[in-house]
Design goal:
The protein is mainly α and 94 residues long. It has one domain (19-92). It has 4 helices and 2 strands; from the N terminus they run H-H-E-H-E-H. The protein has helices spanning 2-11, 13-41, 49-57, 66-92; strands spanning 43-45, 62-64. Strands 1-2 form a two-stranded antiparallel ribbon. Helix 2 runs antiparallel to helix 4. The longest helix is centred in the N-terminal third of the chain and has 29 residues, at 13-41. The radius of gyration is 18 Å and the shape is elongated. It starts with a helix and ends with a helix.
């Protein structure tokens, strides 16, 4: 049975569309929640490669005030954009 489901997922584009939609929905929601948290607390922390570069240079990885709020709004807009992309791709994708 697992083989049939995996074969169905590989051969039908509706499963790939729904998979992309689920992926974008989850990551969009994470971006939105992180952005809202940045806006509420007026603090934001750097992550990823920039965090390693900042720690190597001795620069703080925490932003406070207006810069953190702007970063929060950017995360919210990116999260909404990601969810919209998932909806559009699931409806009109290949």
């Amino acid at each position: 049975m697992l083989y049939e489901v995996s074969l169905l997922a590989a051969t039908h584009t509706i499963w790939s569309r729904l998979g992309i939609f689920a992926f974008t929905l989850v990551f969009g929601a994470v971006f939105i929640l992180a952005g809202i948290q940045n806006i509420k607390t007026r603090t934001a922390e750097e992550s990823g490669k920039r965090r390693f570069v900042n720690s190597a240079l001795g620069v703080s990885n925490t932003y406070k005030g207006t810069k953190a709020v702007v970063q929060g709004y950017i995360r919210v807009v990116c999260g909404v954009g990601l969810i919209i992309f998932g909806i559009v791709f699931s409806l009109f994708g290949s």
